[in-house]
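Why do we bother with a discrete structure alphabet at all? Because it lets us treat a fold like text: something you can write down, compare, and reason about line by line. To make this less abstract, here is a complete entry for Kelch-like protein 6. Read it the way you would read a sentence in a foreign language you are learning: slowly, and without expecting to understand everything at once.
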Amino acid sequence: MTHNTLQLSGTNTECNDEFAVDLGEEDMEDEPKPLDHYIREGLKQLYQEQLLCDTIIVAGGEQFPCHRMLLAAINPYFRAMFSSSFRESRDGEVLLKDMDPAVVQMVVNYYYTEEIALMPEMAQDLFVAASRLQILPLLESCSRFLLEQLSLENCLGIYELGYAHSDPALFQQAKNLVTLHFKNLSAEDKTFPNLNPSTVISIISLDSLVVSSELAVYRAVWRWVTAQGTNRFSFLGQLLAHVRLPLLTQEELSMVQSEATCYRDLRLRWKRLNRQERLQQCGGLRRGMYTTCIVCVDLFNMEGPELKTKDFQVAYFDPQRGTWEKLPLLKCLYCARCVAVGDKLYVTGGVHTDDTYSDTLHEYCPLRGRWTQLPSMSVARASHGFLACDQKLFAVGGWCRYEDYLDTAESFDLSEKFWTPIARLPFSLSHFASVALKKRLYLIGGVTDTVGSWYASRKVLIYEISTDLWSQVLLDNECYWSGAVAMNNGIYVVGGYFRSRGRHHNERWPDSGNLHCTRKCFFLREDGKVDKNIYIPKLPIELAGAAVVRWKHRIYVLGGENTYLYNDLEGENEEEYYNTVYYWEPGATKWTLCQDRLPFTSWGLSGFGCTTMKFPQKPILELFRKTSVALTAIDVGTP
């Protein structure tokens, strides 16, 4: 061995390498295998030769001799059984009722070999067996396999598995398909009538069902109940308790009433309900009863480019129908900000026509059809950031008087209805783009006066909600009055004013002459840094101060302005406003101009508030417009 060691450390590299390889191969051949290898192989051989088996698993009349030590070592189900005074521990026989012998054979083979051949026709039964016997590695393998096989054809069955066996991954993925296609699945799929009653109740209780009418849920209940004649009639009352009967229209109620007369044991209960009572009685709308629209606030009916007018317009745009609808007027403001949480719209801050600044917070509920004033902010703000995250509203930065920038920030708890200060911004800031992404707030660019004069920021400020801390990331350019939306795990930044190489001078905003309106768009990662690998086409025109919102998988750009110098000697500005609407879908090579324009104006607008929001569809809204008679319950078995 000493001689070998000396040769390995010699200078003949080629010979030494060859010798080292040969020596390594010999060592590998002679190296003893670990003890668990012998245990595994030994148990497999004992099982194959049926030696020393001391327990028998019985299923469907078939017997499977096993070793209780192995069964007890692998899972707690058998460990508890064999280490107690149960009959199985004394008799050495385990009876597995309601379990297919073919599935038991696969489980026993898995115990001894760690191998399993998963097939679609057996995977669900094997999943149930693994869950029942608490074989966690096998359960995980079956769960992954079923997720890979998930489709519209089997989603109901997999939903029932995930629900019954508390598998969150299976349940959530299958639920997405079930809720999206509930109407067709409940009416046509052969699996639906065979679901357990508890599974049916769990499905029809979901707010996320994509149904435009509650009649689809009512029909689903009747299909399930009548699938076995009168055997399931005892479940009818329990199921109908989860149908939101006050959401049925007058035409639908007539259909239900005519059907109910065919059953002597059914009695309809009616009550006159107003808006609030109807909402409380039904417990809320289904997901499919809403339409996602783009809401704009402070859309002024301008007769010129001047912003100060008497009317404050609020309207929403439905991109699918290409129509604008008015909402009730709010107190006249401009540079106010808005955000939506579910089906409620919140508007805060802004400037009144008498140049006073607002600290108010208003909530609009479409079902009630009116504005409600909530507790005011601690300070008045305009051109600020207004964002929503985790049932809280966040008002950050902005300004409260001419060139008086703010570094304060506060949050409003929607459940408790009060404002709380949060950490101050690193510096005062206004006219920035802002988004919320994964429990962080992002402020991009903006204008500030921290050095005594106005200038544009070159930073992204990131607020970590959980720690109440701000951090800063540098951008390539100074910018302000851009728009931004969160999508695809990042942030799309659109348009704005950017730093140029010009040397113009403006007396009102000393540094503004070095900025120009741009067509540029870029993408920020979660860390706030620019990702130049993400392609975004340039805007068709130079735009700043536009409303930029995400609608489904599109980015919409509404209105905007372009301020540019037309007199180099005097440094005078000319402003152009737009009433155009563009959209872009990731993957497209250019922006699309919509035929629809901003309403109430032919001059164009910039700096107005904009967000996307869920609006109840018109048949639903009509139910809430006035007090009317509604069906509140169907009693079963009542004379």
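What the structure line is telling us, in plain words: The CA atoms of residues 455 and 511 lie 6 Å apart. Residues 287-621 form a domain with the Neuraminidase fold (CATH 2.120.10.80).
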